[in-house]
Structures
1.
Amino acid sequence: MPPSIDVAIVGAGIGGLTLALNLHEAGIACRVFEAVPEIRPLGVGVNILPHAARVLDGLGLTPALRDVAVTTRESAFFNRFGQFVYSEPAGEHAGYAWPQFSIHRGDLQGVLLAAVRERLGEDAVVVGHRCTGFLQDDDEITISFESPQGDTLPPVTARLLVAADGIHSVVRKQFYPTEGAPRYSGVNMWRGSVVMPPFLSGASMVRAGWLSVGKMVIYPIRNNVDGHGNQLVNWVAEIEAPRPARRDWNGVGRLEDFFPAFADWHFDWLDVAGMIEATETILEYPMVDQDPLPRWSFGRVTLLGDAAHPMVPRGSNGAGQAILDAPCLAAQLREHGLTPTALDAYERLRGKATAEVVLMNRKAPPDAILQTVHELSGDKPFTHIDDVISAADLAEISNRYKNVAGLNREALNAAQAAQTARTGR
């Protein structure tokens, strides 16, 4: 008897749900298995950059995303004294064929989940199934599950297994049981969101300060949340620390562990200290990644998203790279069938690209502009940024990162134009 499922996806996060939609578009049957008994809108903000927005647009999700997200207008940089350093337009405002969305992670997951259930059926996502391991032979996979209470559930058979089960992936651990601890960057981050009036353009993504003295990333993720024009604003505080925080996306942080670095951040364009103090729930997470793996795919099993390439949560790359994995894998399955050959081809294409992003985030992250200005200015206020560094040099730093991260505007737009000419979409 053939397996009951063509492709089993473990994990109903952003990567797993995006893959389910791409497989459906490719005519490949799948089912998603999620550990939690109920999928709820957890987390705080994420950014969907144009390369990932292109994938979601191809799935017809742009209207739904516009309804719940903030369409980002600009990326702006400041020093820790609130002085302007550099800005550039973002997404469609920068000439990309797609927008940049700043969005609550729960809203993004909700859009994806609703689309999966509408297109694939209500039973396409099975909750309360935590993967505990798998066995495989030449023809199929047998996947073991347990309930949230720890009870053994009936096993599931499939032709292929895709592990999109995040940074604590059970499947990855089965492949690499002796893998070392995450690589700590020396920085912890604290995150929160708070309702407040719009600042700057009302759709600005701000980076300010630097890691050694305190750095902030701030952007709105929901518009007019109270009928009075106020927004839900997401913030991330980052600062060097001798020990990493616990690696738990929902770990609760303490104000006293980081606030002193930002206590005097009262700028004419935003009262950063007041924003932090007004936040009810603060989350804490270490800035960690893992060295790129030698292999993701073994027989009929492969990894996707954070399970395959956990990276420092910087530059909107975690969610973005998971979204990019999905259409690549679906395309290889469509070309090569439900075979190990397809998984190997997917790994060859995405393994190198994601490894470059992991390593680039370590040595020249998207906020390298802040580091450069911090060092050149001696961490002191300046009369004008041109006295420190030219706008052309700042633009070069920004473009260098975009080229590695797959965000070259001309290349992306040209690729879309070629696809449209070929397929009409």
2.
Amino acid sequence: MSTAGDAFAAALREDIDRLLAAEPEVRADAEDSVHQMRVATRRLRSVLRSYRELLAGKPATGMRAELKWLAGLLGEARDAEVRADRFATLLADHAERADPAELDAVTARLVEAERQHYRTAHDEVLAALDGARYRELREELSGWRTDPPLRPARAEAAAPEVFRKVLRRDLDRVDSLIRTEPTVDPRERVELLHEIRKSAKRLRYACEAAEQVLGDEAAERGDRAKKLQTVLGDHRDAVESHNAILDRAGEAVAAGENAGLYELLAAAEEAAAGRELSRYPATAAALFGTAVTG
């Protein structure tokens, strides 16, 4: 039976390789590359948090902080990219109902502005990748591939015991948030749903790291966590898009422009958010269909 340290080191190596492999693609501005590197960075940070008991505290805390910094840079570019694509799709769906001049003005405020935001943010990412801070992060990660800072006593424990404990703890965290959700003020609900999404994503990544140890037990739970993460992620995207459209509408009105098309787009996003939210109860319940055994 493998030790927890050996099993975790193997999973960690895969996550580090995924992150480092994305860097050249981001430098080339390849399609979806910023997204892939951002996901790899967040995934690695999440796994370090979930399996923190296997790692020496100070190095792990420092690494999570550096990964948070990198994910923030990538997130600025990725969020602009997502908004530009989402706005472009919305406008294509409603183009025939708009006056051409109005369509051009709205496209400029929504799509073109976000694409420019992406280009600026991507330049900032490239500057960071060429900087000393990222170089030191990459060098440390390269060392962790073969020699992560494990806690010797805990790392020698049986892998199934440790991995099940981690999954149970992350599952309990999601469960606690889901149970709290019906009790919160409606004004706080959107943010709590966002926290549930983040917790489901953390559980998913912890499960995926455990698949080589726990097999289907972890894979099935991870799939259910991913579905919950996806539903709440799509809900969050629609809510944020709706709010951004209303903000741009306010700017348009202040500039003496017609806000009619903005109102149509905002209504479409409000409806999209409602559709995703209607899927939430079933996907949340499905997450607990099979308990993680002890």
3.
Amino acid sequence: MPITLNKKLPAVDILKNENIFVMDDARARGQDIRPIKVLILNLMPTKEATETQLLRYLSNTPLQVKLDFLYMTSHQPKNTKPEHLETFYKTFADIKADYFDGLIITGAPVETLPFEAVDYWQELCQIFDWARRHVYSTLHLCWGAQAGLYYRYGVDKALMDHKLSGIYSQDVVEHFSPLMRGFDDSFLSPHSRHTQVTEADVRAKTNLQILAKGEEVGLSILASRDLREVYSFGHLEYDRDTLKREYQRDMRAHKGPSLPVNYFPQGQPSQQPPLRWSLAASTFFTNWLNYAVYQETPYRLEDLEKTGSLYGYL
């Protein structure tokens, strides 16, 4: 089954060229089923690229998924045209009375700032609070994961000695979690961050399960036992060239970046990077949609008001 999108979204043509089935709103309304409703809070500066990356993996499921995009009104994006936001995105005011099966909160290039110094922090806290009773399962990515842990549990991030950038191995440590079904004992994932959350803090301040971790990356994937909270510190959604574009961006800005680890063949930036994490990414996002969202969410989303207390931090 397809994902349902506004047919004018730029990602639609890209996905169709990749032979990924997408369905426009008009055709979807003719199907007598309730689609899974997923909201994506896109905090990344290159929003169109992130849209395509996430949609590529969310489409790889037998479920019909109805997607909405959300942006922060308290922040003025510099790399996305206002017309794009006006056409394809909603604000918190637009959706705050609605309910969703799933919510994805992306990363953001603000990790070296204290959380409270981020210009949209208060608005984001409103969304965290709202999601308790309006969303069944929330998937947090990279900085979004760090922000969620800080807001809910007081787990702060720590600055690392150097930027973690590259393709790294991590091991599955909780094989019986539905989110890890279909994974090998170890898998590769892109990481791109300056900060980390320590295992000691997570164990001391939360009851979250550690599902995967790695020697170089530290914690990789965490989740609550009921899968209503999922935290991934890597970027499984990244496409082949994302780290390359980030490296080139930092070179142009004269930041003197190190080469992404285990990424360019023979360490040569002129070479095309191999794609080695697509299977893990597809498995992860499909498992989240199936086991954390579809299998557990109530048919009547309004009933989420009755289940909000299931969150461990309430």
4.
Amino acid sequence: MSLLQSEHDSLPESGLEKSMSLVAAALSDPSRVTILCALMDGRAWTATELSAAASVAASTTSGHLARLLSSGLIICLSQGRHRYYSLAGHHIAGLLENLMGVSTHSRALPPPRTPEHLRYARTCYDHLAGELAVNIYAFMLQEKWLEPDGSSLTSVGKTQFHDLGAVLHPEARRKACCSCLDWSERRFHLGGDAGHALLTCFLQHAWLLRVPGYREVTVTKEGTKAMHRLFGICQP
């Protein structure tokens, strides 16, 4: 599998303002935003799948993907004759989550229609988001698994992660641990490598199950028991 370089990577430096305007322009089209939201599940999608998700023609989708590539918001992975698209990284997922939070304060926003099951548990790129995630984060702060600012795990937290089977990567290129503002709950959930490790652990234990093609995750019967036992959380 080879990574195709986006046009954004080769753009000459022309000032922060111009770079910001390019990103803002790429986000100005509802179809492109729909494509980005589909990629928030952390997996790579084909152009055909994204075309269906955005409900636009294949030719139109190609133009949107080219625009998103040139702005550095997505990357294209080439595997044989096939091409797959994904977000350019967890920082883009964080940008989109924050944008969702800002958008909910718009005076022109219609009444919220987010399904309750999506509000409770979903993915934010490669970590867990929603009510469940912010409750876990609050528990970790209370039990001193995290430093007060959420910037790192404490020694207690690292031990707890080890006991859970959540594997941390000491040489990860990304932030080891960070707080991520949850757009639907207006509180923080766990991001960074620690957030990814926790979600991976939950999936491996089959406490959570992905809904194919969507950001939604469901909590299994065993997962409900585990969330209560480990974090004192009762599923609504």
